[in-house]
Amino acid sequence: MDFPRKRLLVLGAGTAGTMIVNRLRRRLDPGDWEITVVDRDDVHPYQPGFLLLPFGSGGRQDLTRSRHAQIDDGITFITGEVHRVDPVEQCVTLWDERMLSYDYLVIASGTEPRPDQTPGMLGPEWRHTIFDFYSLEGTWPLPTRCPG
Fold it and tell me: Which of 31, 5, 10, 32 is nearest to 22 (CA)?
C-alpha cells in the first residue's frame, strides 16, 4: 500500500531556512517526504559582510547570491509573500492566492530592523550620519562627509 508523502513547508530561505531544508533533504527519504521552501525573493544577502562595506572590503555584488542556487536538488523553491497561516487547516496562503498545504511547518522568516522603535533614529541624520548594518541599504551609500 502506498502512503502519501509527508509535506514539510519552510517559510523563509535565509540562512536558517536554507540550512533546515538542505539538512533534512539529506536525512529524509525523498520517496516519503516533499520539501518546499518559500521566500519573498530570490536574493540572499550575506548579512555579516555588511559590516565590511563601509571599510572598503568587498562590494555589494559580493554580498548577495540566489537563494534558489543555495538549495539542494529535490527541494521546491517558491517565490512569494505569505499572507496567512492556517494551523487548523494546515495551509499557508500567499498574497497571490496560491495555497500550500503542509503536514509540518517551520517558520524561519528572520527579523527586520525597526529603527522607528528607537527615539531619534529616523531623524534628518538617518542614513547620513546614522547607519545600520542589518540591511544592504543601511550600509550604502557610504557617508560622503565627516560630521563636525
Answer: 10
C-alpha–C-alpha distance, residues 16 and 134, integer Å: 16
Instruction: Single out the residue of 53, 71, 62 nearest to residue 15, CA to CA.
Output: 71
Q: Which CATH number is 75's domain given?
A: 3.50.50.60
Alpha helices in 28-84 (DSSP H): none
The verdict on residue 93 lying in a domain is: yes
Domain holding 69, by residue range, is 6-112
CB atoms within 10 A of CB 143: 12
> Is pLDDT larger for residue 121 or for residue 71?
71
State pLDDT tens for residues 91-131: 999 999 999 999 999 999 987 778 888 888 888 888 777 77
- pTM for the model: 0.80
Query: What's the number of domains the chain is made of?
Result: 1
* Confidence band, pLDDT 50/70/90 cuts, at residue 132: confident
Say if 145 falls within a structural domain.
no
- Residue 85 included in any domain: yes
Q: Sheet with 99-101: list strands edge to edge.
A: 82-86, 91-94, 99-101
Q: What is the mean pLDDT of the chain?
A: 87
